[in-house]
Amino acid sequence: MKRIVIAGLLIVALTGAVIAETAPTPALALSGAIKFGVQIETDDQLKEDGVVTLRHDGDGVAGPRVELVGAYTNGDFGADFRLRSDSFDASGTAAAGSTTDKTVYVSYAYARGNLLNNMVSFKAGLVDDGQWAGQADAAYDMADGKGINIYIKPIKGLNFGAKIDLTDAKDTTGYTLEQLQNELGFGFAYDLDKMFSVRAGYKLDSDKDDTTVVGKEDTKSWAYGSFKFIGVPNLTAVVESKVGDIGDYKDEVGATGYTVINEGVKYVVNTMFTPGIYAFQTLYSNSDIDMKMKIRPYVDYKLNDKISGHVRAEYETQPDVATTIAIEPRVKFTFNAKSCIEGRYRYQSVESLLPAGITTNTNKINIFFTHSF
């Protein structure tokens, strides 16, 4: 049955050009950005004298960044791509602490098309897509990566479909048909104007890329669901959950199955202030692993057209592992529609709860400049 599904999805994707209507004049749009900044980090353990590194944001991504984004449209069909480089070194060597090649790389590149008066659409290639993505901060999504995505939109607000995941279909060591059918993903989205929206996904995972248990199927399959409520003016509430490692491996010794629950609420007080709170809990199928949880109250602010920012506090803990407390104010100055500069300060205290554990206090100052074109 699954082989029939795969064949049907491929036929829909590959025959779209045959039934396309006459296309208008093709158009190519290019845009991009340069992001450059520094981080100064000190702590009371190994970095007492301070360490200065290049960054393009404050979330741990090393190096500056330059990117070029292209979108080509020819009627109901087109293509999108994004090229990036996270290093300004002539040698193209990887930035410190990075596991990714930091020369110029392809972030995404895919063909797209609309069929049957936009009731069916597809994306094929290295896809970047959020149509079925979760709506909390975690933004779970099974639609990204190499493969073919099919979207079916029979009525307003409804969008469901499937992904044929070809991530590990290498030139010389491709999938078997059995592995391919166990790499399918299924997505769902529904929006009711001014009331709520729902997102869900289920991703199978064969043993093709599983090095943990030889011969096991579905050892890393996972699913997620997300519900966002916007029925009260100025109020947004989101609850989202992901269940990981669904396959039969979860019942064996050394189980790695888990469930993550995310919650978020924010309220727009006025044009200047939006307070909110975000939280998550992670529960493990292995009873020897304690629940992990995090809570993060925050305030987004906008003083005027030039000055805006964000202030957050964080508390995260996992019994017998570690407890983290942090505070992080941010301020952004917008020069114009294309250019801005942002400053962040983060104080973080991590107390290890392991035997002979220590407490590490860290201070980080970040300054970033972004120019879009």
Q: Any chance you could write out the topology, listing elements then pairs?
A:
Blueprint: H1 2-14, E1 27-43, E2 51-55, E3 65-74, E4 77-85, E5 104-115, E6 120-127, E7 145-152, E8 158-165, H2 177-181, E9 184-192, E10 196-203, E11 222-229, E12 235-244, E13 258-267, E14 273-284, E15 292-302, E16 307-318, E17 322-334, E18 339-352, E19 359-372
Antiparallel strand pairs: 1-2, 1-3, 1-19, 3-4, 4-5, 5-6, 6-7, 7-8, 8-9, 9-10, 10-11, 11-12, 12-13, 13-14, 14-15, 15-16, 16-17, 17-18, 18-19
Tell me about this structure:
- This protein is mostly beta strands.
- It is 5% helix and 53% strand.
- It has an 18-stranded antiparallel β-barrel.
- It starts with a helix and ends with a strand.
* Strand residues, percent: over 45%
User: Can you count the beta strands?
Assistant: 19
The gross shape turns out to be: globular
Provide the gyration radius in Å.
23 Å
One letter per element, helices H and strands E, the order comes to HEEEEEEEEHEEEEEEEEEEE
List segments where confidence is low: pLDDT < 50 over at least 5 consecutive residues: 16-21, 92-99, 213-218
Estimate the helix proportion, in percent.
Answer: under 10%
What count of helical segments does DSSP give? 2
The largest pleated sheet is described as: 18 strands, antiparallel, barrel
Structural class: mainly beta
Distance between the amino and carboxyl termini = 48 Å
Average pLDDT score = 85
